[in-house]
Structure prediction request, 546 residues.
Amino acid sequence: MLDAKGICSGYRGVTVIKSLDLSVGREVFAVLGANGAGKSTLLATLARLIPLMSGELWFQGEDISRVPSWVSAARGIGYVPQEKGIFPGLTVLENLYVGAMIGSRSREDRLDEVIELFPDIGERRNQLAGTLSGGESRMVACGRALMQDPRLLLLDEPTAGLAPKYVDSFFDKIREIHRTRDVSIILAEQNATKALEVADRVVVLSLGEASAIMDAADVTTEKLKEGYRI
Amino acid sequence: MSLDWLSAFLIYALFTVAGTVGMAQFLHLQMGLAGIGNFGIVGFFGLGMYTYGVFIRRIPWPDAMGDILPFVISMLAAVVVTALAGMLIGWFISDLDGDGVLVGTLGFATVVYSLALSEKRWTGGAEGMAVTDPVGFGTKGNSLFWLGLMLLLVVAATYYVARVHRSPYGRLLVAIGQNEPLARSLGKPTFGIKLSLFAIGSAGMGLIGAIFAVMNHFIRPTEIGIEVTLAVMVGLVLGGSARVWGAVVGVLLTAGLFDIVVQIYLPLPDSWYQITLPVVREMVFGAMLILVLLWRPLGVLGDMRRDKLVARLGRG
Prediction:
């Protein structure tokens, strides 16, 4: 589905992701790593929000190395950033509707599915998104990305800073999205324990390099420490 | 029906106020929805005015074409040239932050003013140039005709703005204004959308400028001073830049009150009209802008949805 071949990216001449090779199929793929390891940069690069310095990026057999983010979104890559994932001046419903501007399926069908997945936001559909709590905002951001009918969903630390009651619920939703909607997911996460509960495979990033790629079932504390280079 | 009560002053004042409302509606799309703070309004207005003037006066139109065809072609030229200028300026400012956009667009207006002043061969320089009126309804009839056309344009612009507000395109504009990188990841080309929005708004302002040239019969650089931008900006902010009727209400409360009620109906000494009133007008507008930003930053009409929500949360 998504193949990254020797990709390098970063900001203003500073290389953050260094010659990374990844191949993600129909699975939940977790990106683990300490603060500053490059998880968010990697996801923003895959969403085409940060240009590649070198390397190639292929999605569903098409080269997307040089396309802008709106093209990659139109081809089926949904992106939920860690912060500022909603439009605060629009209502919850409007936030969801702006996600449904691409694709041929009925907007109402998509909305019903998202509300079924996140009933809490359905109850707040006419509320301005800027007045929601952190957990509700994440649900709206995730719902908005799902309204795009993505084939691949990039979730950047969706549970960072959330109350514990939301964290468990959110990981359950991630599993449900993958299982019921046949959406591949790349999940950047600091909470390794939770991420490993839902992931099929993981990559551990250390200073922008993949220090380990393995099946989630094979991950041990020792292997994680080795990957984190602790 | 007698139209004696409609003096030439009143018709001209109504025309000016209507033109200001029209430009404020186009600014509303750019600034109120997409968050692009265009401070070069008078630049597009002036470019439209001068493009029309240069085309109608400097091109040797054959007599066989009559008066109307050159007029239509010159109007179209004004719209096309300002739309292209809007695209070009939009392209230049696309990656700038809010301050950069304000300075960039203000710089464009300054360039237009300087060209109007320096390119004497085309524009007539500081002395300006006369523009003929192709309509033949007599002096008052012509003025009423152009006032009617301007009002029609304002109604059309307001209707278009209302349609945009209710459409997915309008929601996308708001999304772009609030978080463009995120809006880019929605699968729509935000750069192209901003560019087309800037072109449409600029073309609208240019058309108003061109109609103004005909109504005024004369164009000169003093018509494209910063006070035009100020009147549009103050009116929109005062009325409420997030609301469809914000431009209408705001301009009526500022330019409407001052240019119609104060200048025409208040018994003021004649000596005030040349220097005192224009200066007082700018001072009052500036003070109103400061007061509104301090006490009611969302304008007189505010943001109804937000107001309702705050009221509801307050009761809860």
